[in-house]
Queue: 3 jobs
Job 1
Amino acid sequence: MPSNPKSSTMTGAEIVIKSLIDQGVEVVFGYPGGAVLPIYDELFKQNKIEHVLVRHEQGAAHAAEGYARSTGKPGVVLVTSGPGATNAVTGLQDALMDSIPLICLTGQVPTFMIGNDAFQEADTIGITRPCTKHNWLVKDTDDLAETMHQAFYVATSGRPGPVLIDIPKDVQFASGTYIGPRNIKPSAYQPKLKGDTAAIQAAVELMEGAKRPLFYTGGGVINSGPHASQLLRDLVEATGFPITSTLMGLGSYPASGDKWLGMLGMHGSYEANWAMHDCDVMICVGARFDDRITGRLDAFAPKSKKIHIDIDPSSINKNVRADVPIVGDVGHVLEDMTRIFRSRGAKTNKAGVAKWWEKIDEWRAVKCFDYEGSDTLIKPQFAVERLAEAMKKHGDYYVTTEVGQHQMWAAQYIPFDSPNRWMTSGGLGTMGYGVPAAVGVQIAHRDSLVVDVAGEASFMMTMQEMSTAVQYKLPIKIFILNNERLGMVRQWQQLLHGERYSSSYSEALPDFVKMAEAFGCKGIKCEKPDTLDDAIAEMIAYDGPVIFDCLVEKHENCFPMIPSGKAHNEMLLGSRAGAGDISQAIESDGAVLV
Amino acid sequence: MDLKRGSSSRSAYHLRPALKEGEERRTLSVLVDNESGVLARVIGLFSGRGYNIESLTVAETDHTGHRSRITVVTTGTPMVLEQIKAQLDRMVPVHRVRDLTSEGPSVERELALVKVANTGDHRVESLRVKDAFRASVVDASLESFVFEVTGSPEKIDAFVDLMRPLGLVDVSRTGVAAISRGPDGM
């Protein structure tokens, strides 16, 4: 298109940078190498995009996820060919499972060497095909701009997800035509945003008659944007129905709201899981009936009619059959749903719902998150509660986590009153997610408090990113619940494998305070409950990255728990279930489940 | 060729001997951009999610628009089949997915090239069978024929079974191509 005034000729590397700028990208997380040197050269020559040098490509992907999840904007990753690309794979799959928009740019050996087992060559497109929403190998510089803009469109529209563009080095050097984002061809990919009005009407009719209704919401509400969270809050208030959420959806409805039942699922609250089991109308909004949520499928919410709102048609009827499926964007559908609900007079079965609340209050009275305190040892739940208290006092906080018991305790005890504040690896369960995610969050929110609630084992998977935090002056706080165990593995071995603790302790642990100092961070160690508040205050007050080594009770189990293969109404409670019950809790058919 | 009589149900096209209880067989037509890797993407979806492929045929059908049409025969429970369609439909290069089996009448055809090596009575008999199946001879030598036969997969199975005692050497099948009946296009 030489006659187009908006197009011009530039090198492939220049096209990459120009496309990123035109897409509004401010930060790129990456790591250089031979096959991306021309792009790094262009990054060097400009000031509009900040490059954050991570210490491992997995860190780049998780940092971009943290950035994306906390801002609602896509995260951008730039890595080299071969090992650069393969190291990013865990982050791509993590983003795919949790629907996080990422654009991953990988260098590739020059086109004429592809397939020759060249140095640092890998079949990046083949390797990442199943762990991206889509990927492209660009063989011609003239196709590069179009592909870059398509990549942003695909990553951010519909159900968001990671995409990857593999760019051979000769394509980066060669010249081609640049076109702007507005000049690209429409894609075959056109997700449906508006829900079917007749279906929404049917859903409203079900809601009007419901005696035991329940909102079950997920990450889709957060992905749909702050507007969707607001609409959800309005609809919950207008109906007076109780609401629970998945791990990924925390914050879309405020934890301080009186309709809030807490998180549901394997380690969810007693009231949320019982309400799921007994409800007669379930309004699933942007959640996908994951096995961590449903428990035993044939006993899942047996008495309920299910309304399922999802932008991805393949999420509907995948695990659980929906009575009223609504394909569309959560924001659009909730808007229509609220309008139709109000236009019909905002009717609900008030008497029925009041009785339902009485029942829910009985479940709430069980106080499922109670635990036995201690004067001598720090209970992990106590540590998270005190951290939450201190963060609330501070205000403006973001939380990331690693994966395991500490992650569940963080979800149970830390309240979130707004969306985009909680970053955790839900679908993939990636240990090592939290530190780099915190880096990405802090890059986007320089003045906010960013805390990674960690376990010592997860922390050691990606702790090299502390060096990134120091380099970019990112005051992230790593709050380690150190039980010297792979706590969740140990818990399952206790429940399921006759207390044979095969390779589930963290031996030869480093001195985290000295490690912090070696990185140039502050190290704090805390062993006694009565010193915890002061130590947490010191951590929050410190203007720089902190590694907080909180030594906790080593054998604490995470409760409540729905054992594998059990139904919601068969959940175990911590203070009530002794170790004897626990070892009998999982039957052989449940043992094969993860 | 190590093909026993009736063993075609265990050939690449019939990996599953018979439909399991509650399962159905469907023929899907998928219109895709003919871009690099698109077939790998579709096959990867089936293998990665544990879906079955009984037959898969692909070729570019629109050279100017670079569109290919994939015909895939698959089996599964109604819930799984619905998943397969939804999973295919959300792929970026996929324009359209049609379930030819459930969306009205359709025609299915497969083509096979069948080589037999024989002389004497067997040679005469194989020509008679060829005529009965309206197959044609596309190659001949004094001791062999290559037949071209077109029809439903069952018809081709039957033809191959009849050729087995008559000196069957080799079979090459295209897989199923299918299209809906009536005036409407995809």
Note: The longest helix of chain B spans residues 120-132.
Job 2
Amino acid sequence: MMELVLSLAIGILTASGVWLILRPRTFQVITGLCLLSYAVNLFIFSMGRLTLAQPPILPRGGLVNPELYADPLPQALVLTAIVISFATTALFLVVMMAARGLTGTDHVDGREPDA
Amino acid sequence: MIEQNLVLILILLPFIGAIAVSTISVNARNAAAWIAGLVFFGGLVLLVAIYPPISEGRSLHAVINWIPALRLNLSIRIDGFAWMFVGLVLGIGLLVVLYARYYLSKADPVPRFYAFLLAFTGAMIGILVSGNIIMLVVFWELTSLLSFLLIGYWYQNPAARDGARMALIVTALGGVCLLAAMLMLGHVVGSYDLDVVLGSGDLIRAHPLYPAILGLFLIGAFTKSAQFPFHFWLPGAMAAPTPVSAFLHSATMVKAGAFLLVRFSPALGGTEAWFLAVTGTGMATLVIGAMMALFRHDLKGLLAYSTISHLGLITALAGIGSTGAIVAAIFHIANHAVFKASLFMAAGIIDHETGTRDLRRLSGLMRSMPYTGTLAIVASAAMAGVPLLNGFLSKEMFFAEAVGWHNGTWLDNNLPYLALAGSILAVAYSLRFIMQVFFGPPALDLPREPREPVSWMRLPVEFLVLTCLVVGIVPGLSLGPVLNMAAQSVTGPDTPYYSIALWHGFNMPLMMSLIAMVVGTGLYLLLSEWIAKGPEGPPLLHRLRGRDIFDAALLVLSWKWPRLLHRLLGTERLQTQMRLMVLVAIAFATVPLLGALQLGPQRHSTPLDPAFALMWLVGSACAVGAAWQAKYHRFAALILLGGAGLVTCLTFAWFSAPDLAVTQLLVETTTSVLLLLGLRWLPKRNEEIPGDRLVAARIRRLRDLGIALAAGLGMAAIAFVVMTRPAIRNIGDWFLRNAYHEGGGTNVVNVILVDFRAFDTLGEITVLAIVGLSVYALLRRFRPAAESVDTPRQQTSEPLDLKEQMFVPAVLMQWMFPVMIMLAAYFFLRGHDLPGGGFSGGVTLAIGLLLQYIATSVRSLEARLIILPIRWMGAGLLFAGLTGMGAWLFGYPFLTTHAQYVQLPLIGQVPVATAMLFDLGIFALVVGATVLMLIAIAHQSLRAGRGAAQETPNRKQGVAE
């Protein structure tokens, strides 16, 4: 029942991430984005099903039976996703720093709420 | 074969000329004119070269397969009609080039003018010779775009800008309608090939989509040809330089609509709907345009409305659609182009030499400009349809068609009267043009002293007027064969030879011509005084201007409504936007999955390992903890976030994804350090934010919690349902089977990234490079908030000095540096066969450098740093790109790789693939981008101190005192 555990984990990561991106402070949002990216990466990865101890690393030469290996496609996709989420996090961080310097607040709207 | 190549050259030549002209110096007026002239001349030579096969009634084809799967081919097809039209475009174009050379002043950027003109010609020829109806629309829109640029050539002039914008909006909208019509046509016929479409007339006319196709098609044609009620853009376009008006708005572009109507009449025409819509619009335009022309005071305005009127005449003929009507339409296309171009040029000369275009100010120019005056009088006579001139012949043919019986509808019965009315008005406005400008007492208050222009500027007009005369006197000898060839290519090879003659005896059309001339002259004599005193436009009608309606509509559509919508629906608050986005995402996932999402019959299940469950217990606690603490305890939240990331990384390792585990671990490290560096610049949060405990805030949080739980539950449910179903074998199998043989590597994930899907990776590293540069650029002007400027308490607090605390770790980290470099090299080299690769290696090296930042002071490291991140990034991107292009040298597509193993002394067998070179590019770029970002952020602690010292000297002084 590893599947159940992992899907619960994805759910919890998603919920925490979504809750955070709805918050008003920039740091909360960036933390939320990181959590959400874990959730999404795990989700995409899990679409290839869970396989134990069968990494997609082949022996040299000869024909192989694909059923003996984990699906490499979601892995390749997630690898790209990890890199891109790293890039967006970095960009967001800098925008966050610059916005704080410019506006004097860390509220996502660039000013404290009126009420 | 050689003819096909000639056709290809014909269509490419103007574009090549445009590029050539646009790259030469702004002052090279003569060079630009020469290149443009040679291109037009070369085009005409090519046209003559392909005349023999065309004159036999064949059409030449040249096809370049582009996307055969979508039936999109670059297909060129030139037949008699297209040949004649291309000849018209090139011939008048050549004269316009000469004319424009003397028309444009020294201050104008002449090469730009010729570049646009050439590109426009290319697009126009493209419309005429397209063998694929989608390609035709592309060229169609291209002419709209280039005419926008040409009308707006004097962009300093607001009227030019407005006219250009209006022309673009109207004609481009028509183009969109045309595209829709063509797509539907392709759907109905099953092919986008012009020949097939033209041959399927019966199929199209019987199809239920026919009315929609016809409507959209006609909107496209009518907007381009300035037919009522879309005519209003053409007078506005008269703000263009006169050579442009002469070329585009009389001879060529506006005729594209007429061309389309004639060309597609075998496919779409022949129905009553076609007759009523096309002939009806044409006749309305003919009469209304002629009436507007009569009341215009602006010389070019009069000619513009006269053009509208003549286009109406051609449209009406295309609507009648009989063989005689088609011949007449084609004949009038050519005739009108010749006399109207010469009239526009004459108007340009008058404007150029006198400084005004107002008919009420001009007078008696025959004395100072006798040659130009004579030429203009002959051309106007052609416009009015006076015998012995070309305009007379095609007008007679039009009268003959109007009188003939077609289908007995009310429109058909009234055609002769409408035609006569239009013709009477044409005589009147032509007469007004001549009498006002050239006769009467000499004008006294002209801005410039009128005189004859340089003879080169008059030459094109002379040539055109001569053509009017030759065609008018010996039509059968001059234009007869070409005209018949053109008509046959439209109506079919069985069309009888249509003999054009000057004299047909005293018949009905001749009587109508005589009536028109007598009544028209009378009308002018009666009204001329009154018109000159009146407003710009016919009485009453001048108040109702299409242009004003257009402007009002534009204001409402592009300003008022969007603003209203924005006020009603928009918000500038990010939280609201995010909430909406999440809700929409949830809704979009829920609606299709509701009911469909259920567990499969056979469960696919992996036995539970308690350690895994325990691990995720910690991971989930970390995630929830991070969510809980992120507001007031950022550092704690960051550590917890790292915990969740580590568990994610272990999960990848657990389920056979070592590459992901390695990458995630490295990225996690880097992200944590980045965020740590950023923490310093955020506001202190020692006390509670006011309002955080209010009921409203609590309700908000509760609502968001509900949304978050719904999102989490949904994701968990989908993930569980999919994961427990048996796997569907997919393209992953193909990658597994072929990674070794095709990609030369045993690590399939790496082979996918650097070989099979290398293009994606190239895009990805480009994104990384852009982000690196953006970070750098954003931080160059970074100004921290005042409260963050001072050195943090932790760095200054006594007695525990930070330097002393960090001494041992610093030494360790410095010793680790070579090890990190080794590790990076190791990851990089094994990448193709075992977990690792350029990305992991690059991040590892970047982390190694980062450790040095932490270990030593920023200043001393920056002084010694030999990595120049931007160069590494550039080199990496270049290397990856060049490796991809290297495949071209061997005749393979971009990014094809070659692989083999090489025996190296001491190291053993090393996989050497060109993919490895690509990976090296990735490596360099990742090192560069990551280091650039880290340094840019870390560097701020130096800048901040310095910047604060410069910006707030008073405060510092205050402290010192």
Note: Chain A touches chain B through 95 residues (CB under 8 Å).
Job 3
Amino acid sequence: MPQLNPEFFVSQLFWLVVTFSFLFVFLWRVSLPRISNVLEKRERKINEDLSAAKELQVEASKIQETIENQLKQARADASEMIKSSSISLQDKAQVELHKLDKELEAKIDESAKAIEDSKNELVSQIQEQVHEITKLTISKVATFNVTDDEIKKAVSKTEGSIN
Amino acid sequence: MAAKDSPLKQFEIVPYSNTELGSYDISFTNSSLSMVITVAVITLFLTLTVNPRSIIPSRMQLISELMYNFIAQLLSDTVGDNGKKYFPFVFSLFMFVLIGNMVGMVPYQFTFTSHIIVTFALAAVVFIGVTILGFVNHGIKFFTFFYIPGVPFYMHPLLIPIEVISYLSRPISLSVRLFANMLAGHTLLKVFAGFVVAMPFFTGALPLAFIVALTGLEILIAFLQAYVFAILTCLYINDAYHLH
């Protein structure tokens, strides 16, 4: 077995020491610091980004809070406005209605009065005509004269039935 | 079977140069070349894929970062905060073994992790380092590591030698595990490759299919053994901090 041939033991050991020492020193001094630098840099960057993100999140939640507060305020204002305006509208409507009622009542009174007046006039006209007719009839039919006062009296007795 | 067709031939070391340092032969061999390729692949990949200015990684950079995080996670899971100091070493060890195994999976490439001397040297570094660490952290109290509390006193004469032996066999088990896995896997591949040639007509397709499946398994083992090597190193470091 060539492995047990001591002929090249020293040579192999020598070259092992040379190559491995070089590898060790090179990795220790050059390659590994490079890699660890990159890793640290990335770690730092990630941490920075994370903290920045956290800060932004806090800011965002603050903004959201103010927006919510403003919305709440606006909603409260709006309902307040609606309430007050509906109350004032109701009041106004009440006043208008009242006014209208009064006007209508006055008109009704006026009309009633006018009707009464015209009725009275009509009644007096009818009485007059009845008086005339009665006088004419009596003068044509009867042989006696009747005074106006007597006729008036008789006609006024019928007044209740005309009404 | 002739020597040139042996499935073990792939483990032979071929020197490319004839260099001597003092009285020692330090020739550049196919094993050395494999190590150099491994180190070049690791350093180039980890350096070129990582752009230090990019927060969002490219796919290649993500691979490097995943490897980094994989070992960092492993170390923090097993050792905790004390483990950060040893991260470059454990990472280098893991990458060296992993890419060494993977380079060995390339056809005609030499697998240096299949040589016991290499794996034993790596394991010995871990073992000696961890033992020194234990003495630095606990001083003479480190020897209480072999004393298991809560056991009947008459068991100690038996248990303490067992503990000492198991501690001393750590580098052996650590190195033999990796070496044997690589040796067995690559030998098996070559044996089946020999069957492909040796079998008549188209029946050679059967061992060929087997080689394809085995290659997948070997890649899994290459990763697994590197992982085992790294996690055991972590556990030994942890032992050096917390004796029991």
Note: Chain A has one domain: 7-162.
